[in-house]
Write a structure and sequence with these properties.
A alpha/beta, B alpha/beta, C mainly alpha, A: alpha/beta, 4-stranded parallel β-sheet, globular, B: alpha/beta, Beta Polymerase, domain 2, 5-stranded mixed β-sheet, 7 strands, 22% strand
């Protein structure tokens, strides 16, 4: 596998070793955080409809504590990017992500948010992980509500594995000096066409 | 059912400027000469009652011998007649037609879209700049056949340019004055707008 | 007699202690457990991801200030009338003098009222 973690990724646990106090505190804090994730629905396209369906009566998101949708990033825990992201909208989602206070997580819902989906074109971002750090990818076009709920429970499991001693975990990952969040060669690498897309390079 | 538009009257009035006409799936199409396109559309609007401009778009065909067509679809709401007026341009030469903003105000954004996607200049348009792509989009005109699907720049370069974009500069002076916001802008944004630092053409 | 107020004092003391401790404990727990990573972009005002357009603090109309000031002045006049009314009821022998005295007081304020009226402070628009 040629992919390596970007510089600065990974976490370091502090010199204080975990003991019964910190693990109990971790359990309490993580239980509180994972069961009260207030989503910021960044819904741009069809996946947003499916997100609304997940929040509605039959598939009820409120049993996961996500009843209160926050449309202000200041009061949100998890940014759910539901739908394709045009390049024109890229600085907007970056700014909204930057304006969310820690602790924050991101769910990339659907194929377009994860990889660009069927839109391998001049106008679409090929996956929001080229712009913001993503914790859980939910595949589907659109994913069924059960799929999104599975992604949410995965995120809850991830949160429960976090530790307060992990100081670098909650560091802000800002855009680099060249204006990119991920190194340029990494963006080009993950945006390579595959499958039937390789035949769509011709012009005229 | 829609009535057929009076193509014969058009041909009688303008003669050789009306090059040919056809009926395709119930839609009436007429090709006109570029030099008199504005005059013909004005006559259609004022004399024949085609008061509603449905759409302005452009077509570039797969075969390079065929001209690049700019298409106006006009509709007579009283008699329920729809007519498609086409002008053929040489795809290898510079693309320019007269703007119809003076006839239909709605043509403003429709022509901006055709300019953004095909690069067709609309002479006489008050504010011709990109509308779908961002103001300073430098890769070209996306719907031309010579434009590859993924664009000319690499994905990282496109992401970099997108993240560096200033969403504020999408607004024009007129739009900001409608929103009563021009005087509230910071001075450097006002300077930028006054100098017209956008990707538009005089 | 003061001793009968002791239970009330205990209740009030408990309430005050509660009012201080409950948010105090929340704030202390927050300071210990939070992850505080302020950045310049994070502190910038939120406008749906766009750069901000316009000022946040809008100017208020001065008419609200005028209404407040006038209310205070005439409310204090009414406040002065209340103990005067008590004295008026108790001193029935001097009722004529007391009435004239209050009318003079009110007349002084009516002069001010007419001035405010003529200056147009009662116009809302």
């Amino acid at each position: 596998m040629g992919l390596t973690l970007p510089e600065g990724a990974g976490t370091t646990v502090s010199s204080m070793s975990p003991n019964w106090m910190t693990t109990r505190m971790d359990a309490l804090v993580n239980w509180g955080r994972s069961n009260s994730l207030w989503p910021m629905p960044f819904g741009t396209a069809c996946c947003a409809i499916e997100f609304m369906a997940s929040a509605a009566a039959r598939f009820d998101l409120s049993r996961f504590g996500m009843e209160r949708m926050s449309f202000s990033p200041r009061q949100a825990d998890v940014l759910i990017c539901a739908g394709r992201l045009p390049f024109k909208l890229a600085p907007v989602i970056r700014k909204i992500w930057d304006q969310m206070p820690q602790p924050k997580w991101a769910i990339s819902m659907g194929a377009c948010a994860s990889t660009g989906g069927i839109f391998d074109t001049y106008a679409m971002v090929q996956g929001i992980d080229t712009i913001i750090p993503v914790d859980v990818y939910v595949p589907g076009c659109p994913p069924r509500p059960e799929g999104l709920i599975y992604g949410i429970t995965l995120l809850q499991k991830k949160i429960r594995g976090e530790s307060l001693l992990d100081w670098d975990l909650r560091n802000e990952q800002m855009t680099g000096p060249d204006g990119l969040f991920v190194p340029a060669r990494k963006i080009d690498e993950v945006s390579e066409p595959f499958g039937n897309s390789v035949h769509q390079t011709r012009s005229a | 059912m829609m009535k057929a538009p009076d193509v014969a009257a058009l041909r009688a009035k303008f003669g050789p400027a009306c090059e040919r006409s056809a009926v395709s799936n119930g839609d009436h199409i007429v090709w006109v000469a570029k030099a008199r396109a504005h005059e013909i559309l004005a006559w259609l609007k004022t004399d024949q009652g085609y008061a509603y401009l449905v759409d302005i778009t452009a077509v570039e065909y797969r075969d390079p011998e065929l001209p690049l067509e700019v298409v106006w679809t006009v509709r007579n709401l009283k008699t329920v007649q729809e007519l498609r007026v086409k002008v053929g341009l040489d795809p290898k030469a510079a693309l320019a037609v007269d703007s119809v903003v003076d006839l239909w105000k709605g043509a403003d954004w429709l022509e901006r879209e055709v300019f953004d996607m095909f690069g067709v200049l609309f002479i006489g348009h008050p504010d011709l700049r990109r509308i779908l792509m961002w103001e300073t989009y430098a890769e070209g005109y996306p719907l031309r056949k010579s434009f590859p699907l993924r664009g000319h720049f690499s994905r990282s370069e496109q992401t970099r340019q997108a993240l560096a974009g200033q969403p504020e500069s999408h607004y024009s002076l007129e739009e900001l004055s409608i929103a009563d916001e021009y005087q509230n802008l910071p001075p450097d944004v006002r300077e930028r707008l006054k100098q017209g630092k956008r990707g538009f053409v005089e | 007699m003061l001793a009968s107020y002791l239970p009330l004092l205990l209740v009030v003391a408990f309430v005050i202690l509660n009012a201080i401790m409950m948010p105090g404990i929340s704030v202390v727990a927050d300071l210990l457990l939070r992850s505080n990573r302020p950045t310049a972009v994070k502190r910038s005002p939120y406008e749906s991801g766009m750069p901000t357009l316009g000022e946040a603090g809008e100017r208020f109309s001065v008419k609200y200030y005028l209404v407040t000031i006038l209310f205070i002045v005439f409310d204090i006049e009414a406040v002065f009338m209340i103990p005067w009314a008590v004295g008026f009821a108790q001193l029935k022998s001097m009722s004529g003098l007391l009435l004239i005295e209050m009318l003079v007081f009110m007349l002084i304020l009516v002069v001010g009222y007419i001035y405010v009226w003529k200056r147009g402070a009662f116009e809302w628009d």
